[in-house]
Amino acid sequence: MQSKSLAAITAETMAACGVSAALDVSGGMAVVSPVTGEAVATLAEHSVADAEAAVALANEAFRSWRMIPAPRRGELVRLFAEELRKSKEDLGRMVSIEAGKSPSEGQGEVQEMIDICDFAVGLSRQLYGLTIATERPGHRMMETWHPLGVVGIITAFNFPCAPWCWNSALALVCGDPVIWKPSEKTPLTALAVQAVFERALARFGGDAPEGLSQVLIGGPAVGETLVESEKVALISATGSTRMGRIVGPKVAARFGRCILELGGNNAGIVCPSADLDMTLRAVAFGAMGTAGQRCTTMRRLFVHASVYDQIVPALKKAYASVTVGNPLETPALVGPLIDKHAYDAMVAALEEVKELGGVIHGGERQDVGPDTAYYVKPAIVEMPEQTGPVFRETFAPILYVMKYTDFDDVLEQHNNVGGGLSSSIFTTDLREMETFLSARGSDCGIANVNIGTSGAEIGGAFGGEKETGGGRESGSDAWRAYMRRATNTINYSKDLPLAQGVVFDIN
Questions:
Q1: Count of beta carbons in the 10 Å neighbourhood of residue 113
Q2: Where is the catalytic site (predicted)?
């Protein structure tokens, strides 16, 4: 057992990251660790007025930051990546403390931040526009990209820092200041990341304006201030579909821009030709990793009847043997649920599927630490059909398994849910593989072959369709969301021909 209290370990880790703010403000917002269910800090909250002041400061920062050459802006992000490398272990520990992830997953999240910083540094010299063919002689047409403005970033508890960096690393090289409103459940990690970023700022020198990166601690009122402010050009919000239904219309009403990364009811299809050993490993991580609390968690599994009696018993065995425990004290693969609300939602879903004929394996609460912490055995539920809570995303380690016989039918079943984030097919049949990736295949933003639904790399744009919100973050050409496009036509001739052959002669 650890000799120090979790609150003391938290304070030491925050200090190692460079946080000097008070963590024990009387009457402040309690920060509860899911590892033990105890409060490890109490933080002062920002008010609506504080949020408005942050937006004003960020807009002043934008006026000067947009004029800094993009490669120079990339240098700041490069320095930030160096500081992240130095603080990887400490930041990873904070992720474990606040989100309950294993040390490997906690540090893996910080590695994602490092990776996207490296990507963004290269991108700072590649913010390319196009030269466009014009029908008018003596003219040149092109498109140019310019900084957009202040970017408000709202993040969820399950990935308390990587999504912020997916946005901020790109936004900063694109010329945009950022304001971060982290989840009320994981604000300490945000403060720690900001402290590490400020070390990079100190090394960067005087080019960086005040207010380039800010963190706002608080509840919905602070987030609403960002969402409703006409001075925030882009809102990038990660969370539930319910949250997206609130944020999206408010930003649209003021003609602002949105990147929405919302819920996902992700599925895998196991075909007759699948490599079953590899499938087993991929499904196990996809369904049980982070205690089922990833937006990319595998929640549904369609298994062909010919291999059902091979893969499902193997999955049951893996589920029964997986280790559940305190991520700070044990090498357990599965940590805690975030809180009682998550546990109650899991229990309710399992009770509902029982009444619908589902056969449950696992799902029991585990005796790990105090009663205020919620550890559960991951659950496999064999379902006669896709019904009830199978259509919904329960943010917990529940995998619904269903049998299929017809490939076209299972594609319909796969797509017949609201979420459209991540998907997988396990097959060595080229026709099945290509059909799954085709226009009539998976309707998700991420469609994988012979890997699980979790574990996306930063090189590809991350996001999904339908109730997942349609947003894209991180790699590929996601940088365009953080800039505004201008089409430019230059007449270097002595004539003024009009497009489409229009004639407008003036005597």
A1: 26
A2: 261
**Cβ neighbours, 10 Å, residue 227:** 24
| 383-405: b (≥16 Cβ within 10 Å) or e | beebebbbebbbbbbbbbbbbbe
Paired tokens of 384: 């006669």
Sign of CA dihedral 211, 252, 265, 343: positive
Q: Is residue 437 over pLDDT 80?
A: yes
The C-alpha atoms of residue 114 and residue 104 are separated, in whole angstroms, by: 15
Number of H helices and E strands in the chain, helices first, is 14, 23
Is residue 312 over pLDDT 50? yes
Report CA torsion sign: 80, 81, 85, 90. Answer: positive
Task: Please give the pLDDT value at position 2.
Answer: 55
Distance CA 390, CA 45 (A): 38
* Angle between the N-to-C axes of helices 6-17 and 88-99, in degrees from 0 to 180, rounded to the nearest 10: 140
Give dist(CA 29, CA 6) in Å, integer: 17
SS3 403: strand
Tokens of residue 501, six digits: 């052959």
Phi/psi of residue 181, each to 5°?
-115, 95
Residue 105 appears among annotated catalytic residues: no
Greatest distance between any 2 Cα atoms in the chain: 93
Q: What is the average pLDDT across 238-251?
A: 97
C-alpha 263/C-alpha 261 separation (Å) is 7
pTM equals 0.96
**SS3 assignment, position 422:** strand
Tens digit of pLDDT for each residue in 378-435? 999 999 999 999 999 999 999 999 999 999 999 999 999 999 999 999 999 999 999 9
Which tens digits make up the pLDDT trace of 68-78?
A: 999 999 999 99
* Closest C-alpha among 182, 260, 191 to residue 218: 182
> What integer pLDDT is reported at residue 505 of this predicted model?
87
Q: Which whole number is the average pLDDT over 178-191?
A: 98
Residue 118: CA count within 13 A, CB half-sphere: 12
Residue with tokens 């040390």: 103
Selected catalytic residue, list 45, 98, 109, 261: 261
Q: Render pLDDT for 11-39 as a digit per residue (tens, 0 to 9).
A: 999 999 999 889 999 999 999 999 999 99
Task: Share the mean pLDDT of the chain.
Answer: 97
CA dist., res. 417 & res. 392, Å (int): 8
d(CA 36, CA 34): 5
Rounded Cα distance between 482 and 177, Å, is: 10
**Residues 214, 178 contacting (CB under 8 angstroms):** yes
CB 37 within 8 A of CB 326: no
